[in-house]
Amino acid sequence: MPTSHAIASRLIPIVAGIRQHALELELGHVEAIEAIPESHRNSACNLLHYLSLRQHDIRDLQQQLALLGLSRLARSEAHTLASLDAVIHALHALAGKPAAEGNERNGVNIHDGDGLLRTHAETLLGTPSPTHSSHIMVTLPSEAASQPQLLRDLLEAGMDIVRINCAHDGPDEWLAMIHNLRAAEQATGRTCRIHADLPGPKLRTGEIEPIGRLVEFKTQRDAWGRVTAPARIWLTPRGRPEAPSLDVDATLPLEDGLIQAANAKDIVEVEDSRGARRQLRLKERFGNSWLAHCFQRGFIPDDSEAQLYRGDERIASGTVGPLPEVCLPILLHIGDKLLVTSESQPGAMARHDDAGRLIRAASIPCTLDAVFAAARPDQAIWFDDGRIGGRILENRDDVITVEITHSSPQGSKLRSEKGINLPDTDLAIPALTDKDKADLAILAPHVDTVGLSFVRGPDDLTDLHHELQALKATHLGTIVKIETRQGFEHLPEILLAGLRNPPLGVMVARGDLAVEVGFERLSEVQEEILWLCEAAHVPVIWATQVLETMAKRGIPSRAEVSDAALSARAECVMLNKGPYIVETTRFLSGVLARMGGHNTKRSPIMRRLAVSELPDRAP
Question: Is the C or the N end of the chain the one with fewer CB within 10 Å?
Fold first, then answer.
């Protein structure tokens, strides 16, 4: 059994070699470091030191250090060179050798490393809550523009940052949300940052061909099939339609004269698409419209006949409509073919002849033309957050043929406005779109941070900084959303580029990222993002589906509570909108406060990281 003296003597040159490699990597990126403000250069140097460390597989080294009771380098992210120096110093002492000369403690010291991350987080995200260090970011729903009380409730529940999702609503609604927030700050005495999230290039499924105009309504039934509540139908004049003033199951526009002639307890009889007739009993008038009840399920097509009866007497007649167009989702099974087309033609279900033979495969348009220039056979394609997956068979410039390889056993339904992911495809498109630039010009004077979506490399971030410079808004913080495989693989370069214009943050958009890297790799990848960002002293926003079930339904799942607890490891946690968002914000604040007293940073065994490799030339 080798002695501690012998083990220490053997490990000294190994650790010293790792240290020397870290300094060499730093020297190889002097130009990139000098482009970074002096206040953040130490952070850039530490990132390079950590990348160098993770280019080695030091699992055996860690085990040997553990036998000596020394640091295993597993918590060296924020102060890598100082951690290596501390280990080298301890090894010399155990080996009975004098400390190495000329081995001054360069870089970020152990005490300052964690402090730099806290300082950068506060600069970007604001002062954290006194009960927990993680900030809470909440995506505002459309109602925040017209319901000032919602902002006050969210602030009191623990919200620190509002997120305006520029993929929804418009400038008038965004500015109204900001106005309501400022009023809520005055009313509550709390302050709140504003984050504008630019959507980037829109890679989604397009419209599906409608099958016609139709309205469906149905009753509520118990376990025995007995009707427990009728369908609630809103009857409104066609010439002056009114929006329902209460919850209803369907809206039917009718001739103005028929509506005007109606009285309570009258019956409007309408023709069902299956040849039956449905009786709608008038219950109550609201303005120029009526609430009616029906005790049968109905499928009412556009232009169907409508008769107004009072007892046995017919009072008036007319037709129903116009009704909304109905677009059925496309049902896809494993082995099916799907044609991805340009946005100029709507999608359609598969067509078969009378013998059941396929005439034309199902089709769905794609909203981004750049896909057709970049996609190649055998590359993967995913739809709807990974619910449907396929393999590209052929690309004929304007039509991509896909074979479905992943769906539910009963088939999966593909609808319009669903996300498309191409993890193997190098899409040469900028992350900053013309719409993003227009939105940024409106919001820049009112917000604190700007989020850039679908970042694939450092040039995307450089484009945003140039735009901010043109708007004289370089004071705004930038938050990079990592949601593509390319973005993750180029994260070290993106961080170095972002540190040129601090403050900087990284949002882990786990939904798209899971599809891009594979669900089985998501946990591993998000860990690596946390490590790299901590090495650069860059705060992280933990996003996508945090307590989503609770926000939508009012009760969290057990898995969501565990996920929320783990999110305390990030400097900020993002919640999406939902009917129960206030309760969810309050719940998350409580979880973060309880986790604040625990060390949630686990100690990895530190195998080599592929993402640690930098290109030959620094960005």
Answer: N
User: How many CB atoms within 10 Å of residue 279?
Assistant: 16
The CA-atom distances, in angstroms, between 347 and each of 56, 207, 388 are 50, 6, 16
Band the pLDDT of 377: cuts 50, 70, 90: very high
Residues whose CB falls within 8 Å of the CB of residue 104, separated by 6 or more in sequence, listed in order: none
| Domain boundaries 134-201+430-595, CATH class | alpha beta
pLDDT class of 449 with cuts at 50, 70, 90: very high
The Cα–Cα gap between 280 and 267 comes to: 5
Among 154, 145, 140, CA closest to 175: 145
DSSP state of 56: S
Fold topology of 212-325:
M1 Pyruvate Kinase; Domain 3 (2.40.33)
The fold for domain 328-421 equals M1 Pyruvate Kinase; Domain 3 (2.40.33)
The answer to whether the peptide bond before residue 230 is cis (omega within 30 degrees of 0) is no
Are the C-beta atoms of 540 and 529 separated by less than 8 Å? yes
Any idea where the domains of the chain sit in the sequence?
A: 4-108, 134-201+430-595, 212-325, 328-421
pTM comes to 0.85
**Of 460, 473, 601, nearest in space to 196 by CA:** 473
